[in-house]
Amino acid sequence: MNVFWTATAEAHLDAIYAYIAQDSEAYALSTVDKITRRSQQIGDFPASGRKVPE
């Protein structure tokens, strides 16, 4: 399965980076890396996780 990032999602990711980088560029890079790795995991294992009761 492929995961596609919308322009809005990419803009939000950039904003997250910019906000955190004000205090720590290293932590900002780490946070963005964790988010992007998680999206790759979703693409590789789309059925992982649990269903949240509505």
Task: Label this structure with key terms.
single chain; 54 residues; mainly alpha; 65% helix
Number of strands: 0
Major pleated sheet: none
Helix percentage range: 55-70%
* H/E topology pattern: HH
Q: What do the pLDDT scores average to? A: 91
Could you tell me the strand content as a percent range? under 5%
Number of helices: 2
Class derived from helix and strand content: mainly alpha
Task: Describe it.
It is a single chain. The model has no long low-confidence stretch (mean pLDDT 91). Helix 1 packs antiparallel against helix 2. The protein is mainly alpha-helical. Helix content is 65%, strand content 0%. It is built from 2 helices and no strands. The chain has a domain of 37 residues.
Give me a quick take on this structure.
This protein has 54 residues and is an all-alpha fold. It contains two helices and no strands. 65% of the residues lie in helices and 0% in strands.
Write the layout of secondary structure elements.
Elements: H1 7-21, H2 25-44
Helix pairs in contact: 1-2
